[in-house]
Structures are given as C-alpha cells and as structure tokens.
C-alpha cells in the first residue's frame, strides 16, 4: 500500500491529482479496454511523460483496483443501508435496493460500466467478480424474503428474478448519459420492475 503524507491524500505533480488520473484511466479502460491501454496511453491523455505518470500512481493494476473498488464499494454500501432499515417490509427493502442500484449506477456510471465489463483476466478482476457474486446472492436473498412474505410471486427462482431485475438495471450502462434526472430514472426503473407496463383496469 502506498504511503500518504500527513494532512491529506498524496498528490502528483501540479495539475493532476489522483482523482483526476483515476477518472481519465477509467475513461480510457472503457474506451480501449483495460488490456489494450498502457501507462503510456494514460500519460499522453493527461499530457504527461511516461515517466511522470508514476509520480501519480504506481501501476495500471492499481488504477483498475481503485476503479472496481469504487463501483463495488458504492453498491455494497447502498445494500447495507437498505438492509439496515429494519422498520421496512421485505418488499420495501427490495424496491429500495433496486432504486438505490440505479442511483449508484447513474452517479458512478464510468466505474460501474468498467465493472460490468471485467472477465477475470487479472487478480483484481477475479476479486471483483467474487464481490459481484456476493452482491448477487445478497440481492437474491432479498427477493427470497419478499416472496416468502407474499409480496411478490414465489413460483420463480429468486436468483433468476434477481438476475432479470438487475440485468435491466445494468443494461443502463449501454445508453445512459450522465446529464439526466437520476431520481426520475430510478423511480421509472423501480416501477417497471415491480408494476410492469400494463395499466391497471
């Protein structure tokens, strides 16, 4: 783990802090693919020399780990907050999980997009896939609880329901732009997931 000076996060040379370097790296990884992106590519994108980039970050793998941790950390924290609300019903918690997942995706779109593209080609990606599976199982458990309470249908495997619902959420990365109304989008996706398209008669 790299050392940080007292009084705040380590900064690179003037003009680029680590947050900026990470944002540019995620953009490049999404555009070119992680394997096809070099530290030289990142340096050029930032207007630095190849040697200067190492004043900001130790390696390309470090950037990938931080990017994936951003997405997974936000998703996990959102689920933790939903689960902690013991005053709500299982259906309310499941709805909240869907809604908060949309919000996280929209607010961390580049990082979540990168997460959904990993295939386990590096140790960081393998670890990220393990964490994603854990999140999938936590969501499936919430579906199971809602089904057991009678709030949603119980004749479909909860893991299948979870994958279908969150597959819809994840598909937002294919067309979503970061200039829309996040709350309205989250409400729309949640309504479609639970209430469908057919107007009640």
Structural notes for this entry:
This protein has 201 residues and is mostly helical. The chain folds into two domains: 18-58, Homeodomain-like (Arc Repressor Mutant, subunit A), CATH 1.10.10.60; 63-195, Tetracycline Repressor, domain 2 (Orthogonal Bundle), CATH 1.10.357. The protein contains eight helices and no strands. Helix 1 (18-32) crosses helix 2 and helix 4 (90-107) packs across helix 8 (182-195). The protein starts with 17 loop residues before the first helix and ends in a 6-residue tail after the last helix. Mean pLDDT is 90; it is low at 1-14.
- The low-confidence parts are 1-14
Whole-number count of domains: 2
Q: How many strand elements?
A: 0
Number of helices: 8
CATH architecture assignment of the largest domain: Orthogonal Bundle
Which secondary-structure class do the elements indicate?
mainly alpha
Question: What share of residues is helical?
Answer: 55-70%
GO molecular function: DNA-binding transcription factor activity; transcription cis-regulatory region binding
Protein name: AcrR family transcriptional regulator
DNA-binding region: 38-57
Pfam families: TetR_C_24, TetR_N
């Amino acid at each position: 783990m790299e050392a940080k000076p007292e009084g705040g996060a380590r900064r690179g040379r003037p003009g680029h802090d680590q947050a900026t370097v990470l944002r540019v790296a995620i953009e490049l990884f999404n555009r070119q693919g992680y394997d096809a992106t070099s530290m030289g590519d990142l340096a050029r994108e930032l207007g630095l020399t190849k040697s200067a980039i190492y004043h900001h970050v130790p390696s390309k793998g470090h950037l990938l780990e931080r990017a994936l941790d951003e997405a997974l950390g936000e998703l996990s924290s959102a689920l933790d907050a939903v689960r902690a609300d013991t005053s709500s019903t299982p259906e309310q918690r499941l709805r909240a999980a869907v809604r908060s997942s949309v919000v996280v995706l929209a607010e961390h779109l580049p990082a979540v997009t990168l997460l959904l593209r990993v295939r386990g080609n590096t140790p960081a990606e393998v670890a990220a896939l393990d964490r994603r599976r854990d999140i999938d199982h936590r969501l499936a458990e919430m579906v199971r609880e809602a089904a057991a309470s009678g709030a949603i249908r119980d004749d479909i495997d909860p893991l299948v329901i979870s994958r279908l619902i969150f597959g819809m959420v994840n598909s937002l990365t294919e067309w979503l732009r970061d200039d829309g109304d996040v709350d309205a989008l989250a409400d729309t996706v949640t309504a479609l997931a639970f209430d469908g398209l057919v107007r009640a008669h």
